[in-house]
């Protein structure tokens, strides 16, 4: 039954409706007018109720005039920048890389409000065509600059058959209460191999939304790593479709959450064909009064026999006021699969702490050592030393704030 | 008279509502090796944890003096800096922390606390290589996360390696022989014996006499129901092996 009375819109929703109308997205504007932003009653937003969490929507972003310092330097990387949604000119692309841009958004339309908003507001997409073994790491540096702005950015990445690449996307910008909505659509051709890392390093007052959509062809190999270490409110939505037999992906992620923050990684993947595999490992560390959310859903289609899926969430609570939420789900329609999931949450292990301290390491140092050790599993499989070091520096930066 | 390395005076310890140690007295002079023998559950391991400063143990009476300094108010790391080392009965597995990284961190933490400069990487590598060779520890083992997936023997050898590198004045070995086959027992014992010196004392806690064939003690203490009930020379260990601990139990009853 349709609700007869439209919801009372918040200030944020009212602004959003105006912006969507101005962008010609009347249908989406109408949706919000009727139902509001996704609330806890929408299953995939159950722990991240945007009606209450999203307090304000700043004006739509104008092109950026200036750029802040890069949030993360990866030595030797080929740099691309999208500032306030606009694809910037780049230096000469390395062999096998064709950079372009096109009108309009990149994501597949689906029933998700943040996808709809990105689709309505992203004016252009960065196009990246990769062919062969791409030598340098590719960094897509996405910024929201200037006064507080609502910005949507989009990238479309194609890996040709048998190609191989490592891409890191970083999100940052000026110290303002931006609302950024980023999208990446990534298609992996036959036997293509990709490591794709996204790191939110936005300023604390910002709100960061990102959608990563993957499509895996036959024999494709993907490692995906999502890190939240920036905005007060962040959510990454990872969608994936295993469309070719023999494809495999490792989905990993990390919420580093401090006092006053709410970070959410939601994963929704579909094993659509037989003989594919995925391994999910998500970790969350929360200190102060904060909330970390992981939702993971693996759907195994009726034809997708011999699917091998194993999903794990591990949480580390550093304060009594922190909240770590986890909702792993398996939805299996095939009858010959191996799928499992697990979820654990705890504090720093007292036995380990005592052991390290008994060798003379101070409590503070021992705790840091244990937190780094806890996260090692996420960083260790990444092949490039420079990248591992850059990611370790993100973690170290977070640890500087003190553990409790 | 010179200050003993370790002096325990009338030590009483509770865990929750149970009194585990009921008045332990022990004087361990510099350069000596003392063994503590007793049946399971007599409180031997509790003594080792209390010495090292583990939480959850409530000292209700008594003192522990390390080189004349009361350690009861000190944190575990401060006790380590003061020269105490506990070789764990069950070394803890620490995932994600490479053994080498940890060894260097521990050495430097102690040096820093003593106001010394950090060890240089070449000096560190040399020290690890030398100590490791004696204990048949190869570099592959050191690259692995601390104690993770180590066999029983590897764990005990890694403990002695740490001991060799940290150069404590008091070594407490808690059931170091448990889980060791004969070959590993010889390697570990050899490693321990190499560390015997006039400035260093050892407290060897064990259930079986066999370890004491390899690490020959100056004094043997018999532990029963939370206190030392008899002390003697190394022959006491042999007598115990022959007649068991039952005699002491009767006294208690």
Briefly, what is this?
Chain A: Pfam families: SUFBD_core (PF01458). The complex is a heterodimer of chains A (404) and B (253). Chain A is 19% helix and 41% strand.
Detailed description of the structure:
- The complex is a heterodimer of chains A (404) and B (253).
- With 404 residues, chain A is α/β, with parallel strands linked by helices.
- In chain A, 19% of the residues lie in helices and 41% in strands.
- Chain A has a domain at 76-349.
- Chain A is built from 7 helices and 19 strands.
- In chain A, the strands form 2 sheets. In chain A, strands 2-1-5-7-9-11-13-15-17-19 form a 10-stranded mixed beta sheet, with no helix packed on it.
- In chain A, strand 1 (78-83) and strand 2 form a beta hairpin.
- The longest helix of chain A has 17 residues, at 363-379.
- Chain A is globular.
- With 253 residues, chain B is of the alpha/beta class.
- Chain B has one domain: Rossmann fold (3-Layer(aba) Sandwich), CATH 3.40.50.
- Chain B is 39% helix and 26% strand.
- Chain B is globular, with a radius of gyration of 18 Å.
- Chain B starts with 5 loop residues before the first strand and ends with a helix.
- The model of chain B has no long low-confidence stretch (mean pLDDT 93).
- Chains A and B meet through helix 5 and helix 6 of A and helix 2 and helix 3 of B.
């Amino acid at each position: 039954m349709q609700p007869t009375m439209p919801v009372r819109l918040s200030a944020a929703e009212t602004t959003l409706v105006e912006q969507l109308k101005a962008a010609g997205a009347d249908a989406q504007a109408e949706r919000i007018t009727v139902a509001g932003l996704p609330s806890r009653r929408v299953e995939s937003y159950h722990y991240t109720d945007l009606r209450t969490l999203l307090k304000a929507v700043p004006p739509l972003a104008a092109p950026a005039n200036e750029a802040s310092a890069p949030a993360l330097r990866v030595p030797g990387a080929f740099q691309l920048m999208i500032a306030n949604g606009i694809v910037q000119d780049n230096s000469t692309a390395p062999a096998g890389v064709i950079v372009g841009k096109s009108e309009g958004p990149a994501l597949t339309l689906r029933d998700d409000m943040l996808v709809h908003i990105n689709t309505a507001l992203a004016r252009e997409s960065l196009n990246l065509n990769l062919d062969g073994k791409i030598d340098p790491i590719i960094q897509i540096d996405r910024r929201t600059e200037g006064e507080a702005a609502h910005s949507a950015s989009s990238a479309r990445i194609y890996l040709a058959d048998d190609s191989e690449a490592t891409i890191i996307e970083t999100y940052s910008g000026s110290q303002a209460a931006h609302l950024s909505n980023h999208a990446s659509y990534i298609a992996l051709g036959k036997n293509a191999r990709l490591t794709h890392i996204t790191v939110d390093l936005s300023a604390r007052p910002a709100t960061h939304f990102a959608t990563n959509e993957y499509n895996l062809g036959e024999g494709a190999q993907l490692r995906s790593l999502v890190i939240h270490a920036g905005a007060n409110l962040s959510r990454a939505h990872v969608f994936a479709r295993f469309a070719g037999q023999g494809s495999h992906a490792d989905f990993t992620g990390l919420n580093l959450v401090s006092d006053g923050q709410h970070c959410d990684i939601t994963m929704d993947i579909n094993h659509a064909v037989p003989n594919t595999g995925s391994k999910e490992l998500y970790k969350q560390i929360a200190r102060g009064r904060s909330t970390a959310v992981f939702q993971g859903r693996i759907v195994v289609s009726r034809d997708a026999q011999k699917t091998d899926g194993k999903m794990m969430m591990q949480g580390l609570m550093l304060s009594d006021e922190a909240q770590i939420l986890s909702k792993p789900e398996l939805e299996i329609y095939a009858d010959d699969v191996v799928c499992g999931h697990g979820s654990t949450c705890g504090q720093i292990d007292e036995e380990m702490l005592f052991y390290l301290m008994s060798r003379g390491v101070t409590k503070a140092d021992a705790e840091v050592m244990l937190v780094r050790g806890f996260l090692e599993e996420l960083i260790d499989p990444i092949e490039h030393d420079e990248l591992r070091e850059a990611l370790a520096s993100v973690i170290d930066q977070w640890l500087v704030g003190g553990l409790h | 008279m010179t200050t003993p390395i370790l002096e325990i005076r009338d030590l009483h310890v509770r865990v929750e509502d149970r009194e585990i140690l009921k008045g332990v007295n022990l004087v361990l002079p510099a350069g000596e090796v003392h063994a503590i023998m007793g049946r399971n559950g007599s409180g031997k391991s509790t003594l080792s944890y209390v010495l090292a400063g583990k939480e959850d143990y409530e000292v209700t009476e008594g003192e522990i003096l390390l080189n004349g300094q009361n350690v009861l108010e000190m944190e575990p790391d401060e006790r380590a800096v003061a020269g105490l080392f506990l070789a764990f009965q069950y070394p803890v597995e620490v995932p994600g922390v490479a053994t080498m990284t940890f060894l260097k961190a521990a050495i430097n933490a102690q040096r820093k606390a003593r106001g010394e400069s950090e060890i240089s990487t070449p000096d560190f590598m040399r020290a690890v290589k030398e100590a490791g060779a004696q204990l048949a520890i190869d570099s592959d083992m050191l690259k692995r996360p601390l104690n993770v997936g180590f066999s029983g023997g590897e764990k005990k050898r890694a403990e002695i390696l740490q001991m060799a590198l940290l150069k404590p004045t008091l070594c407490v070995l808690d059931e170091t022989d448990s889980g060791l086959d004969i070959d590993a027992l010889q390697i570990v014992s050899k490693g321990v014996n190499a560390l015997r010196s006039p400035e260093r004392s050892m407290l060897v806690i064990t259930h079986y006499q066999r370890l004491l064939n390899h690490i020959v003690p100056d004094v043997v203490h018999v532990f029963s129901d939370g206190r030392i009930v008899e002390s003697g020379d190394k022959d006491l260990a042999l007598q115990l092996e022959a007649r068991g601990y039952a005699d002491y139990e009767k006294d208690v009853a």
